[in-house]
Amino acid sequence: DAGVIQSPRHEVTEMGQEVTLRCKPISGHDYLFWYRQTMMRGLELLIYFNNNVPIDDSGMPEDRFSAKMPNASFSTLKIQPSEPRDSAVYFCASSLAETGPYEQYFGPGTRLTVT
Amino acid sequence: DAKTTQPTSMDCAEGRAANLPCNHSTISGNEYVYWYRQIHSQGPQYIIHGLKNNETNEMASLIITEDRKSSTLILPHATLRDTAVYYCIVRVLGSGNTGKLIFGQGTTLQVKP
User: Fold this and answer.
1) Torsion-angle region of residue B99: left (phi > 0), alpha (psi -120 to 50) or beta?
2) Which one of A35, A46, B13, B39 is CB 3.0 to 4.6 Å from A59, fit for a cystine?
3) Cα A28 to the chain's mean position, in Å?
4) pLDDT digits over B30-86, tens only?
5) What is the 3-state secondary structure (H, E, C) of chain A?
6) Looking at CA atoms only, how far is residue B102 from chain A in angstroms?
């Protein structure tokens, strides 16, 4: 298996622009997680899905952030409009219910820079 | 959720065993101990987890004390590629699990030649 795939790997955008991050989980996994990592706040969970349904979005910073999972093999995290404080590395992870939601496999991340 | 305490940093000589401790003195009976690591510029990597018995896989061994108040992750023959931040996380598995992993500051392990 190719593992969790994220695109783009790097994104540089100007403040106010819309940013869309993409994730393809490991085939067969039924949990999908979006995390954000910054030096100041460390690694924090934004939202997670189970069987394509959002379960907990309490970590989403504000209404500018939205996430969707239209099918089992694809998810997006959108920021509109983007702000410089959104600059971070965004990770997607997936896991299999059979082995428990905490055995998560992470993608390589998307490094977002908002100028 | 039980809180975990880890040393901020540790050094280990290449080829020697790296023993990373974690204190979780308030752990409850249905909480598992999970270990992850994050190599610089990469996503976190699952290593191992356990409830009360010692566990071993191809990456590491997990030793949990009998009272379950602490555990040790053992990398038997550390290599330079094991240099990373190691996270110990305690979570409920099964009924009551939330799916959330909460990463603390972890232990920065530096493997030296």
Assistant:
1) left
2) A46
3) 18
4) 889 999 999 998 999 999 999 998 999 999 999 999 999 999 999 999 999 999 999
5) CCCCEEECCEEEECCCCCEEEEEECCCCCCEEEEEEEECCCEEEEEEEEECCEEEECCCCCCCCEEEEEEECCEEEEEECCCCHHHCEEEEEEEECHHHCCCCCEECCCEEEEEC
6) 7
Smallest Cβ distance to A43: which of B32, B99, B103? Answer: B103
The DSSP bridge partners found for residue A1 are none
Tell me the chain A residues in contact with residue B104 when contact means C-beta distances shorter than 8 Å: 42
CA angle B41/B43/B79 to nearest 5° reads: 70
**A25 in B contact zone (CB under 8 Å):** no
Let me know: does A102 contact B49? Beta carbons within 8 Å.
yes
- Would you say A29 and B99 are in contact if contact means Cβ atoms under 8 Å apart? no
Q: What count of other Cβ atoms lies within 10 Å of the Cβ of residue B13?
A: 11
Question: What is the DSSP-derived secondary structure letter of residue B96?
Answer: T
Give the phi and the psi of residue B81 in degrees, each rounded to 5.
-70, -10
In whole angstroms, what is the distance from residue A115 CA to residue A97 CA? 39
Distance CA B64, CA A83 (A): 44
